[in-house]
Amino acid sequence: MPSADPLAPRLPSPLREVADDRFARHGVRLLLKRDDLIHPELIGNKWRKLVPNLAAAGDRALVTFGGAYSNHLRATAAAGRILGRTTVGVVRGQELADRPLNASLARCAADGMRLHFVDRSTYRAKAEPGTLAGILRDIGAGDAYVIPEGGSNAEAVRGCRALGEELRGHADVVALACGTGGTLAGTAAGLAPGQRALGIPVVKGGFLAADTAALQERAFGGRRGTWSLDDRFHFGGYARTTPELDAFAQDFEDRHGLPVERLYVAKLLHGLLTLANEGAFARGTTVAAVVTGRPFPRGRADR
């Protein structure tokens, strides 16, 4: 009988092995954790992060932050439409207010999200109490529930712990692409002793290790699990791609019939293949790559 909960997920998300000779020649077994199939509209780690925050918000309006192609904004807007909740998206880039909405922001608006554009300097300071208070005052939402950019806070991290728990006993290494560190923080906490989590940042700057540790501190009171990051595979920074990355992703699609989202998943898979070629994984290692999203629109996304 179908669930009456419109946000009911498909959990645990499917886990399947892919036969890829590029990994097999190094004795590495590759699994794909299909978190992109959890829910048709709250995809992957967005469901895992948002649902705990929706519970914490109660009946308050939801205010959150993102760029012009934000997966997180779209997921929050979709949740608002599904549940009949008020949502406001604070969008980076005041100049966008005078342009036609792109496909991503148009989807947010169609789902009922009110868009509020701010200049980039204000956006950078959005976590500062005075700046945040000013933004909430400007949008008339002083009592709203605020979800940070990318949805990463203590509630989200605790929600992502279940991802690690689902992978206990299935892989030696659990790898995922990272934008804000929340999914990595939670996943690592859920893994069993002897397993480790590997984060592939899609942003450059080298700050995600500190951010991930801080998120675990807020969620669990200290560092949890074994985890690390490899900062080499951002391909120029957030929302950047290259012809090399696109060719790799297209080849992976052709080999395995999996639509590969370019700004997170492609960078993760490319990084794992590079590491396998470097001998970073001992022969006999099973690696589970978490597929956190799917393309929308083709080749563009934001956290």
Brief overview:
The chain has 11 helices and 10 strands. It is of the alpha/beta class and 303 residues long.
Structural commentary:
This protein is α/β, with parallel strands linked by helices and 303 residues long. It has 2 domains: 15-41 and 153-290, Rossmann fold; 61-143, Rossmann fold (3-Layer(aba) Sandwich), CATH 3.40.50.1100. It contains 11 helices and 10 strands. The protein has helices at 21-24, 45-57, 71-83, 103-110, 120-124, 129-138, 154-166, 182-190, 208-220, 243-256, 265-277; strands spanning 15-18, 29-33, 62-66, 87-92, 114-118, 145-147, 173-178, 196-201, 227-229, 286-290. Strands 1-2-10-7-8-9 form a 6-stranded mixed beta sheet. Strands 5-4-3-6 form a 4-stranded parallel beta sheet. Helix 2 packs across helix 7, helix 3 packs parallel to helix 4 and helix 10 (243-256) crosses helix 11. The longest helix is centred in the C-terminal third of the chain and has 14 residues, at 243-256. Residues 298-303 have low confidence and may be disordered.
